[in-house]
Amino acid sequence: MAITKNIAKELEINENSVENTIQLLKDDATIPFIARYRKEKTGNLDETQIKNIKERFEYYTELEKRKQTVLQTVKDQGKLTPALEKEILSCTEKQKLEDIYLPYKPKKRTRATIAKEKGLEPLADLILAQQPYKGTPPSKDELSGAKDIIAEKISDRADIRGYLRKMTYNEGKIVSKVKKEFKGKKTKYETYYDFSEPVKKSPSHRILAMQRGEKEKVLSWKKLLDDYKDIFGSYKNLIES
Predict the structure, then answer these.
(1) Residues in Cβ contact with 88 at an 8 Å cutoff, skipping those fewer than 6 apart
(2) H or E element: which one contains 176?
(3) What does DSSP assign to residue 103?
(4) How far apart are CA 228 and CA 199, in angstroms?
(5) Which terminus of the chain is more exposed, N or C, with fewer CB under 10 A?
(6) Domain encompassing residue 152
(7) What's the number of domains the chain is made of?
(8) Are the C-beta atoms of residues 101 and 84 closer than 8 Å to each other?
């Protein structure tokens, strides 16, 4: 990944200015010093622009290090294909990288793992593909194990996780309720006793306040989507692909 080029495009700053600023930061120059005394190098960038370059450079540097760890882990498993390697190397978001890595990430023993050990993965694949089952009908426990495998397979799909995350942000809402022990009592969290608003309109300070309220056992809160059927309808082609 060309870090300088990505930062320049993202922040809409000349690539040479970004490259020179990064070099000055690497040389331990401070942001105020660069803004005041190195205008000829940065193209007259102000402190906010330099700060943004610094933050994005640190972000992408950490991302590149993480990529190498992910690549090595997948390679050690013997599962690194040219297509997967290309997908990992071209990734520009930490969350997306983790979604790609999830199916290969060493896991604790799960219900899906146990079901696979019992030889139920072929049954799960038939159900997922909606193909007819031939032979003795599976037992209730076998169907339950197959469902655990299917749930993990879908959960591990990077495209599905990304789509659901985007849908939750665009269409979801945050709902907060007061716990029964605090009904009618005054606290600093009264604003959130019966609160609801779209996720995309909820600023970080409100979410943090609700999280603190939950930690102090005054509130309970969650993210909701109004119509789960719409989600599965939208995802039918993704799951079957």
Answers:
(1) 67, 70, 71, 74, 97, 100, 101
(2) strand 173-178
(3) G
(4) 16
(5) C
(6) 111-156
(7) 3
(8) no
Give the phi and the psi of residue 226 in degrees, each rounded to 5.
-70, -40
**What is the spatial distance between Cα 19 and Cα 2, in angstroms, rounded to a whole number?**
11
**pTM of the predicted model as reported, rounded to 2 decimal places:** 0.69
Verify that 79 and 115 share a domain, yes or no: no
Q: Give the CATH number for residue 13.
A: 1.10.10.650
Residue 77 and residue 147 share a domain: no
Mind listing the pLDDT tens digit of every residue in the chain (241 residues)? 589 999 999 999 999 999 999 999 999 999 999 999 999 999 999 999 999 999 999 999 999 999 999 999 999 999 999 999 999 999 999 999 999 999 999 888 899 999 999 999 999 999 998 888 888 899 999 999 999 999 999 989 988 888 888 888 888 899 999 999 999 999 999 999 999 999 999 998 999 999 999 999 999 998 887 654 444 444 444 444 3
